[in-house]
Amino acid sequence: MPLSFIQIFSISKPIIGMIHLAGANRAEKLRRALDELTIYEEEGVDGAIIEDYHGDFRDVRAALLGSRDHTIIRGVNILKGRANPFDYATLCGGKFVQLDNIQTPDLDLDDYNKSRKQLDVSVFGGVRFKYTRETGNPLEQERRLDSKLL
């Protein structure tokens, strides 16, 4: 069973940094990501999310594999494409995935539920992510649906 938020971080309000994978090519993105993780660790940041904002799932994979020697708690956010973030999180012993949008029209629920049952990875999520279309459901209905998924 996935760990709770408090079990992952051991504090109620952790500082979680974001690695956006910026750079001119895959090698530069990887170098910058690992440098940023090192800085986060040195400065006492509690966790880091590796996200494909400026890259793609291959860049996320390279950063996760390259970060195995880092001790900071790592999570994954895949914004683009259909790559399964649960699979990527398990590459490096990641403890969580961030899903920016867990509105059911934008989520493959079968794949999501299968991954949640098989993998020991927690989910952090949001309602009505700024870059996605609205479902048309009232906010309270979406919150109820989201709470069932998390």
Number of strands: 5
CATH topology: TIM Barrel
Please tell me the total number of domains: 1
- Per CATH, the superfamily is Divalent-metal-dependent TIM barrel enzymes
Question: What Rg, in angstroms, do the CA atoms define?
Answer: 15 Å
Given this structure, which CATH class is correct? Alpha Beta
Helix content: 40-55%
> What is the distance, rounded to the nearest whole angstrom, between the alpha carbons of the first and last residues?
12 Å
| Major beta sheet summary | 5 strands, parallel
Count of DSSP H/I helices:
6
What structural category arises from helix and sheet content? alpha/beta
What integer is the average pLDDT?
82
What's the SSE pattern?
Answer: HEHEHEHEHEH
The dominant shape is: globular
Beta-strand content: 5-15%
CATH architecture: Alpha-Beta Barrel
Strand order in the largest sheet: 1-2-3-4-5
Poorly predicted regions are none
Which secondary structure elements does this structure contain, and how are they paired or packed?
Elements: H1 5-9, E1 16-19, H2 26-42, E2 47-51, H3 57-66, E3 73-77, H4 85-91, E4 96-99, H5 109-118, E5 122-125, H6 139-149
Parallel strand pairs: 1-2, 2-3, 3-4, 4-5
